[in-house]
């Protein structure tokens, strides 16, 4: 009885028939410290499959400071990105390389160079640019690094590229992040929903410890947040992402 959740208020949804907002509180001891994975497993792990419910949507989370403080949170904001790129007083200009799939690593690096040389502050990989037969991740990292250093030498400006470190295993993901660091790249990227919160938190810790910026792509979010009466509001995914770091 000590550890059960308690519904302390129910109110109807305005303009909707037979829909209600329920406010549920859970004891703090139910949750592992610093674990977004456990947080979601506990709150939405099984209840969405209950046959008694036609639909269910998690609209928001109100997280007490005592629990929030067990997470590292995001170490960097826009100011640190401006500091790393030495760009102030205006918006940062960037783009995603297109076509995102099918280019060789050499041609991909050439596209990065032309964009940065042409005046952009940064370029980025897209969400499914990982390590395909036509462009392996290590080759992409090396050609992109060459493009960045060449464009910096010619423009006298600091440039960046969001290298997608998302991989099939956490071990491979960390290898990619480590190479990005070794090459002197300022930013790595991760698909945090498809990659998973455990992987994302590990990568966030690595980036914090090694002075890297972490850019996030929300690939697959619409599977969870698109329906108004079922799933999860994106604000919940965003809060969980900040907890993850």
UniProtKB/TrEMBL annotation:
Q: How is the cofactor bound?
A: Binds 1 Mg(2+) ion per subunit.
Q: Which keywords does the record carry?
A: Calvin cycle, Carbon dioxide fixation, Chloroplast, Lyase, Magnesium, Metal-binding, Monooxygenase, Oxidoreductase, Photorespiration, Photosynthesis, Plastid
User: Which Gene Ontology terms cover its molecular function?
Assistant: magnesium ion binding; monooxygenase activity; ribulose-bisphosphate carboxylase activity
From the Swiss-Prot or TrEMBL record, state where the protein is found. Plastid, Chloroplast
Q: Which residues form the Ribulose bisphosphate carboxylase large subunit C-terminal domain?
A: 77-245
- Predominant location category: plastid
State any GO CC term.
chloroplast
Give the highest taxon in the source lineage: Eukaryota
Provide the cofactor list for this protein. Answer: Mg(2+)
Q: Which InterPro entries match?
A: RuBisCO, RuBisCo_large_chain_AS, RuBisCO_lsu_C, RuBisCO_lsu_C_sf, RuBisCO_lsu_fd_N, RuBisCO_lsu_N_sf
Q: Quote the EC number.
A: 4.1.1.39
Q: Which residues form a coiled coil?
A: none
SUPFAM superfamilies xref list: RuBisCo, C-terminal domain, RuBisCO, large subunit, small (N-terminal) domain
Among Pfam families, the record links this protein to:
RuBisCO_large, RuBisCO_large_N
Keyword Metal-binding assigned to the entry: answer is yes
Return one Gene Ontology term, BP aspect: reductive pentose-phosphate cycle
Q: Please write the reaction equations for the catalytic activity of this protein.
A: D-ribulose 1,5-bisphosphate + O2 = 2-phosphoglycolate + (2R)-3-phosphoglycerate + 2 H(+); 2 (2R)-3-phosphoglycerate + 2 H(+) = D-ribulose 1,5-bisphosphate + CO2 + H2O
Which residues belong to any copy of the Ribulose bisphosphate carboxylase large subunit ferrodoxin-like N-terminal domain? Answer: 2-67
Report quaternary structure and partners. Heterohexadecamer of 8 large chains and 8 small chains; disulfide-linked. The disulfide link is formed within the large subunit homodimers.
Record-stated family: Belongs to the RuBisCO large chain family. Type I subfamily.
State its role: RuBisCO catalyzes two reactions: the carboxylation of D-ribulose 1,5-bisphosphate, the primary event in carbon dioxide fixation, as well as the oxidative fragmentation of the pentose substrate in the photorespiration process. Both reactions occur simultaneously and in competition at the same active site.
Name this protein carries in UniProt = Ribulose bisphosphate carboxylase large chain
